[in-house]
Amino acid sequence: MDKMIMDNQKNFLSDAVAIVEKGRQTAYASVNQAMIATYWQLGKHIVEFEQGGAERAEYGKKIIASLAHTLTERYGKSYNARNLYYFCQFFQNFPREEILNSRVQNLTWTHFRHLLRVDNREIRNWYMKEAAQEQWSVRTLDRNISSQYYERLLLSQRKEPVKQEMQEKTTDLQQDKLEFIKNPVVAEFLGLAPNADFTESDLEGSIIIHLSKFLMELGKGYAFVARQQHIRTDAGNDYFIDLVFYNYILKCFVLIDLKTTKISYQDVGQMDMYLQIYDDERKQPDDNPTIGIILCSETDGDVARYSTLAKNDQLYAAKYKLCLPTQEELKREIERQKEIFRLEKGGDRGV
Fold first, then answer.
1. β-strand 238-247 against 222-232: which pairing, if any?
2. Are 287 and 252 in contact (CB under 8 A)?
3. Is the pLDDT at 186 greater than 60, yes or no?
4. Of 76, 247, 301, 328, which has the most beta carbons under 10 Å away?
5. Given the DSSP bridges, would you call strands 238-247 and 252-259 parallel, antiparallel or unpaired?
6. Is the pLDDT of residue 200 over 50?
7. d(CA 335, CA 23)
8. List of residues 6+ apart from 89 with CB closer than 8 A
9. Residue 316 and residue 172: Cα distance in Å, rounded?
C-alpha cells in the first residue's frame, strides 16, 4: 500500500513538472515566433519603403538613421541602424514561407543572424534545415559555419566520421536548453530588464560579488562601473564581462573575467577582444589603455593574467604595479571566498 501511494505521488509530481515544462516551451515558442516575424516584417517595411520600385541608397541611409533613432529611444539598442540593416537582409534573403513555417520553432533570431553570414543561398538553406532538424544551439551553428562543416561533408567520401567528429566537438555547446530565453535581445524585445546573473554558477557568482568588494576595499582608486556587462560584437555575438571598474589613478577602465577552468589561449583572445571594444567605444581621449585581468578559480594553482593593448613606458608599468592587486592577493581572496562558499553550503568538499 505504501509503495502504491509513493508511486502515485511520484507520478503526480512528474506530471506537474511536465505541465509546467510544456507551458514554458509554448511560451518560448510564441515569443520566438513573434520576434522573428516582427524583425522580418520590419525589414520588409524598410526595403519596400526605401526602394519604392527604384534604388535610392542615400535616401535610404537617412531613413534608416531616423528610424533607428526613434526605435532605440522607445525599445532599446536592438533597433540600432546596424540591426535594421540586418532586418533588411533577413527579408531579402529568406522568403516568407521559409520563415513562418515550423522550422522557426527551433531557430531563433540569433540563428538567422549567423545564417546571414553564408552568402550561398543553397548552403545557407542547408544550414537552416540542419539547425532546425537537429536542434543545434546558436554556438553549434556558429562553430559549424566557421569550420565549413557543409563543405567538408560535401568533399568527404565517408561522411559518418565527419558527422561524428562534429557531434563530439559540439556536445558542450548544446548544453544550455534555455539559451533563447536568456538572450538579452529577448528580454529587450519583451521590455524586460536583462538578468545580470544568468551566466554565472553559484560559486562563480559568489566569488565575483566578493571580488568587487575586495577591490573597492583596496583603496587604490577603483570606482565600480558594472557587473555582468553585456557587449555585442559586429558579428552579433553576445558576451558578458564579469566586472568593470574605472581606476581614477591609472585613468583607465579595468575589466575582470573569471574562468572556472584553466586559462586558455581562447580566454586571452576573448579578453583582448573586450579591450579593443572598450578602447574603441568607451575610452575617452585622455584615458589610458584599458586593462584586462583574467582569473582562474578551478585549482589550487589559481592564477591571474594581466592584459593591456599598450604600456606606453615604464612609468605606466610602475603605476600598474602600484594600483593593481598582485596575483598572490587575488589568489588568497579567491581561495578565501571559495572556503566561505563551501561553509555556507554545508561543508561540501566537492566545491
1. antiparallel
2. yes
3. yes
4. 247
5. antiparallel
6. no
7. 42
8. 43, 116
9. 41
**For the segment 256-302, what is each residue's pLDDT rounded down to a tens digit?**
887 766 677 777 888 888 888 888 888 888 888 888 888 775 544 55
Q: What is the pTM assigned to this prediction?
A: 0.58
pLDDT band per the 50, 70, 90 thresholds, residue 205: low
Write b or e for each residue in 214-253: b if 16 or more Cβ atoms lie within 10 A of its Cβ, otherwise e: bbeeeeebbeeeebbbbbbeeebebebbbbbbbbeebebb
pLDDT, position 42 = 92
Residue 57's nearest CA partner among 88, 93, 80 is 88
CA distance 153 to 164: 11
Show the cell assigned to 77.
539598442
Residues 6+ apart with CB under 8 A from 183: 108, 110, 238
Pairing assessment for the beta strands 304-308 and 252-259 based on DSSP bridges: unpaired
With vertex at residue 257, the alpha carbon angle to CA 251 and CA 263, rounded to the nearest 5 degrees, is: 125
> Which CA distances in Å does 259 have to 225, 307, 330?
20, 15, 13
> Phi, psi (5° rounding) for residue 62?
-65, -40
- Quickly state the pLDDT bin for 193 (edges 50, 70, 90): low
The full length of the chain comes to 351
The pairing of strands 252-259 and 222-232 is: unpaired
The predicted-structure confidence for 92-129, as pLDDT tens digits, reads as follows 888 776 666 656 667 888 889 889 989 898 999 889 88
Query: CA nearest 63: which of 91, 77, 42?
Result: 42
**Radius of gyration for the alpha carbons in the chain, expressed in angstroms and rounded:** 24
